[in-house]
Amino acid sequence: AQPHVVVLATGGTIAGAGASAANSATYAAAKVPVDKLLAGLPELSSVAKVSGEQVFQIASESFTNEHLLKLGQRVSALSKQPDVDGIVITHGTDTLEETAYFLSLVVHTTKPIVVVGSMRPGTALSADGALNLYDAVSVAASKDAAGKGVLVTMNDEIQSGRDVSKTINIKTEAFKSQWGPLGMVVEGKNYWFRAPVKRHTMNSEFNIDDIKALPAVDIVYGYSNMNTTGIEAYGKAGVKALVHAGTGNGSVAAQAVDSLKALRAQGVQIVRSARVPDGFVLRNAEQPDDKYDWVVAHDLRPQKARILAMVALTKTNDSKELQRIFWEY
Ligand SMILES: NC(=O)C[C@H](N)C(=O)O
Protein backbone atom coordinates (compact mmCIF):
# COMPACT_ATOMS: atom_id res chain seq x y z
CA ALA A 1 0.00 0.00 0.00
CA GLN A 2 1.07 3.59 -0.56
CA PRO A 3 2.32 5.54 2.46
CA HIS A 4 -0.25 7.87 4.00
CA VAL A 5 0.89 11.47 4.44
CA VAL A 6 -1.24 14.07 6.22
CA VAL A 7 -0.77 17.68 5.11
CA LEU A 8 -1.54 20.15 7.89
CA ALA A 9 -2.06 23.57 6.32
CA THR A 10 -1.44 26.72 8.31
CA GLY A 11 -1.38 29.44 5.60
CA GLY A 12 1.56 31.52 4.42
CA THR A 13 2.62 32.40 0.89
CA ILE A 14 2.40 28.77 -0.20
CA ALA A 15 -1.36 29.39 0.18
CA GLY A 16 -1.08 32.92 -1.19
CA ALA A 17 -2.72 34.53 -4.20
CA GLY A 18 -1.81 37.61 -6.22
CA ALA A 19 -3.81 39.74 -8.65
CA SER A 20 -1.81 38.62 -11.67
CA ALA A 21 0.90 36.15 -12.66
CA ALA A 22 3.41 39.01 -12.64
CA ASN A 23 2.81 39.58 -8.91
CA SER A 24 5.66 37.57 -7.40
CA ALA A 25 6.06 39.81 -4.34
CA THR A 26 2.74 41.69 -4.03
CA TYR A 27 -0.01 39.32 -3.00
CA ALA A 28 -2.11 38.19 -0.06
CA ALA A 29 -0.80 35.26 2.01
CA ALA A 30 -3.06 32.53 3.47
CA LYS A 31 -5.89 32.53 0.90
CA VAL A 32 -5.97 29.11 -0.77
CA PRO A 33 -7.53 26.24 1.24
CA VAL A 34 -5.62 22.97 1.59
CA ASP A 35 -8.04 20.98 -0.59
CA LYS A 36 -7.35 23.36 -3.47
CA LEU A 37 -3.58 23.22 -2.88
CA LEU A 38 -3.64 19.43 -3.05
CA ALA A 39 -6.05 19.30 -6.01
CA GLY A 40 -3.60 21.51 -7.90
CA LEU A 41 -0.88 18.86 -7.51
CA PRO A 42 -2.25 15.61 -9.02
CA GLU A 43 1.38 14.35 -9.20
CA LEU A 44 1.17 13.67 -5.45
CA SER A 45 -1.00 10.60 -6.09
CA SER A 46 2.02 8.70 -7.41
CA VAL A 47 4.01 9.47 -4.23
CA ALA A 48 1.57 8.89 -1.37
CA LYS A 49 -2.02 8.74 -0.29
CA VAL A 50 -2.43 12.34 0.84
CA SER A 51 -5.09 13.85 3.08
CA GLY A 52 -5.30 17.51 4.02
CA GLU A 53 -6.39 19.36 7.15
CA GLN A 54 -6.74 23.11 7.49
CA VAL A 55 -5.33 23.86 10.95
CA PHE A 56 -5.04 27.66 10.54
CA GLN A 57 -5.12 30.06 7.62
CA ILE A 58 -2.67 32.78 8.67
CA ALA A 59 0.52 34.51 7.62
CA SER A 60 3.31 33.06 9.75
CA GLU A 61 4.41 36.41 11.23
CA SER A 62 1.16 36.18 13.21
CA PHE A 63 1.94 32.81 14.79
CA THR A 64 1.51 32.87 18.58
CA ASN A 65 2.45 30.41 21.31
CA GLU A 66 -1.16 29.18 21.20
CA HIS A 67 -0.75 28.34 17.51
CA LEU A 68 2.49 26.47 18.30
CA LEU A 69 0.82 24.43 21.03
CA LYS A 70 -2.26 23.60 18.97
CA LEU A 71 -0.17 22.59 15.95
CA GLY A 72 2.22 20.55 18.12
CA GLN A 73 -0.68 18.70 19.74
CA ARG A 74 -2.17 17.83 16.36
CA VAL A 75 1.17 16.64 14.96
CA SER A 76 1.75 14.54 18.07
CA ALA A 77 -1.72 12.95 17.88
CA LEU A 78 -1.34 12.15 14.16
CA SER A 79 2.14 10.71 14.67
CA LYS A 80 0.63 8.12 17.06
CA GLN A 81 -1.93 6.93 14.49
CA PRO A 82 -0.81 3.64 12.93
CA ASP A 83 -2.40 4.66 9.60
CA VAL A 84 -0.22 7.81 9.31
CA ASP A 85 3.30 7.40 7.89
CA GLY A 86 4.42 11.01 7.61
CA ILE A 87 3.25 14.56 8.29
CA VAL A 88 3.74 17.70 6.21
CA ILE A 89 3.05 21.19 7.56
CA THR A 90 2.56 23.99 5.04
CA HIS A 91 3.62 27.23 6.69
CA GLY A 92 4.56 30.83 5.94
CA THR A 93 8.30 31.22 5.62
CA ASP A 94 8.72 34.15 8.02
CA THR A 95 8.58 32.08 11.22
CA LEU A 96 8.82 28.61 9.66
CA GLU A 97 12.19 28.05 11.32
CA GLU A 98 10.71 28.67 14.75
CA THR A 99 7.82 26.26 14.29
CA ALA A 100 10.10 23.59 12.80
CA TYR A 101 12.49 23.86 15.77
CA PHE A 102 9.61 23.84 18.27
CA LEU A 103 8.17 20.64 16.76
CA SER A 104 11.62 19.00 16.74
CA LEU A 105 11.89 19.67 20.48
CA VAL A 106 8.46 18.43 21.59
CA VAL A 107 7.00 15.79 19.23
CA HIS A 108 8.00 12.23 20.16
CA THR A 109 8.08 10.25 16.95
CA THR A 110 10.50 8.81 14.42
CA LYS A 111 7.97 9.34 11.62
CA PRO A 112 9.06 12.03 9.17
CA ILE A 113 7.71 15.52 9.86
CA VAL A 114 8.41 18.04 7.09
CA VAL A 115 7.67 21.77 7.25
CA VAL A 116 7.41 23.57 3.91
CA GLY A 117 6.62 27.00 2.51
CA SER A 118 7.20 29.06 -0.58
CA MET A 119 8.59 32.44 -1.49
CA ARG A 120 6.10 33.16 -4.30
CA PRO A 121 2.34 32.67 -4.28
CA GLY A 122 0.94 29.85 -6.42
CA THR A 123 -0.54 32.41 -8.82
CA ALA A 124 2.90 33.81 -9.76
CA LEU A 125 5.14 32.97 -12.70
CA SER A 126 7.75 30.41 -11.60
CA ALA A 127 5.90 29.78 -8.36
CA ASP A 128 8.04 27.62 -6.08
CA GLY A 129 5.35 26.19 -3.80
CA ALA A 130 4.23 23.27 -5.96
CA LEU A 131 7.68 21.67 -6.19
CA ASN A 132 8.47 22.45 -2.55
CA LEU A 133 5.22 20.73 -1.50
CA TYR A 134 5.82 17.78 -3.83
CA ASP A 135 9.29 17.41 -2.27
CA ALA A 136 7.86 17.68 1.26
CA VAL A 137 5.29 14.95 0.64
CA SER A 138 7.83 12.67 -0.99
CA VAL A 139 10.29 13.14 1.91
CA ALA A 140 7.50 12.59 4.46
CA ALA A 141 6.51 9.39 2.61
CA SER A 142 10.03 7.96 2.60
CA LYS A 143 11.37 5.48 5.15
CA ASP A 144 14.91 6.91 4.96
CA ALA A 145 13.67 10.26 6.35
CA ALA A 146 12.68 8.61 9.66
CA GLY A 147 14.46 9.59 12.87
CA LYS A 148 16.18 12.64 11.40
CA GLY A 149 14.18 15.19 13.34
CA VAL A 150 11.83 17.75 11.85
CA LEU A 151 12.88 18.56 8.29
CA VAL A 152 12.35 21.51 5.95
CA THR A 153 12.21 21.12 2.16
CA MET A 154 12.79 24.30 0.18
CA ASN A 155 14.54 24.73 -3.16
CA ASP A 156 15.26 20.97 -3.55
CA GLU A 157 17.21 20.90 -0.28
CA ILE A 158 16.39 18.86 2.82
CA GLN A 159 17.31 20.99 5.79
CA SER A 160 17.35 20.29 9.51
CA GLY A 161 14.50 22.21 11.15
CA ARG A 162 16.84 23.02 14.01
CA ASP A 163 19.57 24.56 11.91
CA VAL A 164 17.74 26.25 9.08
CA SER A 165 16.85 29.95 8.86
CA LYS A 166 15.29 32.26 6.33
CA THR A 167 18.30 34.26 5.15
CA ILE A 168 16.91 36.35 2.28
CA ASN A 169 13.44 37.71 1.65
CA ILE A 170 13.44 38.21 -2.13
CA LYS A 171 14.81 34.98 -3.62
CA THR A 172 13.48 31.44 -3.77
CA GLU A 173 16.84 30.22 -2.46
CA ALA A 174 15.87 31.62 0.94
CA PHE A 175 16.56 28.90 3.51
CA LYS A 176 20.10 28.17 4.63
CA SER A 177 21.93 26.59 7.49
CA GLN A 178 25.50 27.52 8.30
CA TRP A 179 26.14 23.78 8.79
CA GLY A 180 24.70 22.88 5.37
CA PRO A 181 21.63 20.94 4.28
CA LEU A 182 21.18 17.30 5.33
CA GLY A 183 20.56 16.31 1.75
CA MET A 184 18.72 16.97 -1.47
CA VAL A 185 15.43 15.68 -2.86
CA VAL A 186 15.28 15.24 -6.63
CA GLU A 187 12.31 13.76 -8.51
CA GLY A 188 11.00 12.03 -5.41
CA LYS A 189 14.29 10.47 -4.29
CA ASN A 190 16.32 11.58 -1.27
CA TYR A 191 20.10 11.98 -1.37
CA TRP A 192 21.52 12.27 2.18
CA PHE A 193 24.89 13.74 3.09
CA ARG A 194 24.83 14.18 6.88
CA ALA A 195 22.63 13.66 9.93
CA PRO A 196 21.83 15.92 12.91
CA VAL A 197 23.65 15.26 16.19
CA LYS A 198 21.59 17.48 18.48
CA ARG A 199 18.79 15.91 20.54
CA HIS A 200 15.36 15.95 18.91
CA THR A 201 11.96 14.21 18.70
CA MET A 202 12.32 10.68 20.18
CA ASN A 203 15.45 11.67 22.13
CA SER A 204 14.04 14.89 23.54
CA GLU A 205 13.26 15.22 27.24
CA PHE A 206 10.37 17.52 26.32
CA ASN A 207 6.97 16.29 25.19
CA ILE A 208 4.09 18.35 23.85
CA ASP A 209 1.70 15.95 25.61
CA ASP A 210 2.93 17.39 28.95
CA ILE A 211 3.08 21.06 27.94
CA LYS A 212 -0.06 23.05 28.67
CA ALA A 213 1.34 26.58 28.25
CA LEU A 214 4.57 28.32 27.29
CA PRO A 215 6.17 30.99 29.49
CA ALA A 216 6.77 34.57 28.35
CA VAL A 217 10.19 34.85 26.70
CA ASP A 218 11.08 37.90 24.61
CA ILE A 219 14.03 39.26 22.66
CA VAL A 220 15.96 42.55 22.89
CA TYR A 221 18.24 43.65 20.07
CA GLY A 222 21.77 45.00 20.58
CA TYR A 223 22.99 48.02 18.59
CA SER A 224 25.25 51.02 19.05
CA ASN A 225 23.84 53.66 21.41
CA MET A 226 21.50 50.94 22.74
CA ASN A 227 19.05 52.14 25.34
CA THR A 228 17.72 49.92 28.12
CA THR A 229 14.05 50.91 27.93
CA GLY A 230 13.12 47.60 26.29
CA ILE A 231 14.97 45.46 28.82
CA GLU A 232 13.32 47.27 31.72
CA ALA A 233 9.86 47.12 30.12
CA TYR A 234 10.12 43.36 29.61
CA GLY A 235 11.23 43.01 33.22
CA LYS A 236 8.18 44.94 34.42
CA ALA A 237 5.94 42.88 32.15
CA GLY A 238 7.03 39.73 34.02
CA VAL A 239 9.06 37.99 31.35
CA LYS A 240 10.55 34.65 32.52
CA ALA A 241 13.60 34.81 30.26
CA LEU A 242 15.02 37.50 28.01
CA VAL A 243 17.09 36.67 24.94
CA HIS A 244 19.70 39.33 24.16
CA ALA A 245 20.51 39.44 20.43
CA GLY A 246 23.98 40.83 20.97
CA THR A 247 26.45 42.35 18.59
CA GLY A 248 29.40 40.27 17.31
CA ASN A 249 30.17 37.38 19.66
CA GLY A 250 27.04 38.19 21.65
CA SER A 251 28.65 41.25 23.18
CA VAL A 252 26.51 43.47 25.41
CA ALA A 253 26.66 47.28 25.79
CA ALA A 254 27.84 48.43 29.26
CA GLN A 255 24.48 50.03 30.14
CA ALA A 256 22.60 46.91 28.99
CA VAL A 257 24.86 44.72 31.17
CA ASP A 258 23.62 46.58 34.24
CA SER A 259 19.98 46.25 33.25
CA LEU A 260 20.32 42.56 32.44
CA LYS A 261 22.10 41.88 35.75
CA ALA A 262 19.25 43.64 37.55
CA LEU A 263 16.72 41.45 35.77
CA ARG A 264 18.68 38.29 36.62
CA ALA A 265 18.66 39.37 40.27
CA GLN A 266 14.86 39.40 40.04
CA GLY A 267 14.91 35.80 38.79
CA VAL A 268 14.65 36.41 35.04
CA GLN A 269 16.91 34.10 32.98
CA ILE A 270 19.23 35.90 30.58
CA VAL A 271 20.12 34.14 27.33
CA ARG A 272 23.03 35.68 25.46
CA SER A 273 22.80 35.18 21.68
CA ALA A 274 24.15 37.11 18.71
CA ARG A 275 22.54 39.20 15.99
CA VAL A 276 25.14 38.11 13.40
CA PRO A 277 23.67 35.47 11.09
CA ASP A 278 26.29 32.73 11.65
CA GLY A 279 28.79 31.50 14.19
CA PHE A 280 28.13 30.73 17.86
CA VAL A 281 28.44 32.30 21.28
CA LEU A 282 31.07 30.98 23.68
CA ARG A 283 30.51 30.91 27.42
CA ASN A 284 32.49 33.55 29.36
CA ALA A 285 33.83 35.13 26.16
CA GLU A 286 32.77 38.80 25.89
CA GLN A 287 30.85 38.59 29.18
CA PRO A 288 31.49 36.62 32.43
CA ASP A 289 28.46 34.33 32.16
CA ASP A 290 29.49 32.24 35.19
CA LYS A 291 29.69 35.34 37.36
CA TYR A 292 26.42 36.83 36.11
CA ASP A 293 24.64 33.47 36.00
CA TRP A 294 23.67 33.95 32.37
CA VAL A 295 23.11 31.28 29.71
CA VAL A 296 24.64 31.34 26.23
CA ALA A 297 22.57 30.40 23.18
CA HIS A 298 25.29 28.30 21.49
CA ASP A 299 24.68 28.55 17.71
CA LEU A 300 20.96 29.31 17.97
CA ARG A 301 19.79 32.56 16.46
CA PRO A 302 17.79 34.75 18.84
CA GLN A 303 14.39 33.60 17.55
CA LYS A 304 15.40 29.93 17.95
CA ALA A 305 16.95 30.57 21.36
CA ARG A 306 13.58 32.01 22.41
CA ILE A 307 11.82 28.77 21.37
CA LEU A 308 14.28 26.57 23.29
CA ALA A 309 14.15 28.83 26.36
CA MET A 310 10.34 28.61 26.46
CA VAL A 311 10.35 24.83 26.10
CA ALA A 312 13.17 24.37 28.64
CA LEU A 313 11.46 26.62 31.20
CA THR A 314 8.44 24.30 31.21
CA LYS A 315 10.76 21.85 33.04
CA THR A 316 13.39 23.81 34.90
CA ASN A 317 14.29 27.31 36.06
CA ASP A 318 17.84 26.29 37.00
CA SER A 319 20.37 28.24 34.91
CA LYS A 320 22.88 25.35 34.88
CA GLU A 321 20.22 23.01 33.57
CA LEU A 322 19.22 25.60 30.99
CA GLN A 323 22.82 25.84 29.82
CA ARG A 324 23.06 22.04 29.53
CA ILE A 325 19.88 22.10 27.43
CA PHE A 326 21.30 24.84 25.18
CA TRP A 327 24.40 22.71 24.50
CA GLU A 328 22.40 19.53 23.84
CA TYR A 329 19.49 20.72 21.66
N1 LIG B 1 6.92 33.73 2.08
C1 LIG B 1 6.05 33.78 3.10
O1 LIG B 1 5.44 32.78 3.39
C2 LIG B 1 5.93 35.07 3.84
C3 LIG B 1 4.66 35.30 4.59
N2 LIG B 1 4.66 36.61 5.17
C4 LIG B 1 4.47 34.31 5.73
O2 LIG B 1 5.38 33.98 6.43
O3 LIG B 1 3.39 33.85 5.93
TrEMBL record:
Domain L-asparaginase N-terminal: 4-195
GO molecular function: asparaginase activity
Similarity comment: family membership: Belongs to the asparaginase 1 family.
Chain ranges of the Asparaginase/glutaminase C-terminal domain: 217-326
Alphabetical keyword list: Hydrolase, Signal
Protein name: Glutamin-(Asparagin-)ase
Superkingdom assignment: Bacteria
Residues binding substrate: S60, T93, D94
Residue positions of the active site: T13, T93
Presence of the UniProt keyword Glycoprotein in the record: no
One of the protein's GO biological processes: asparagine metabolic process
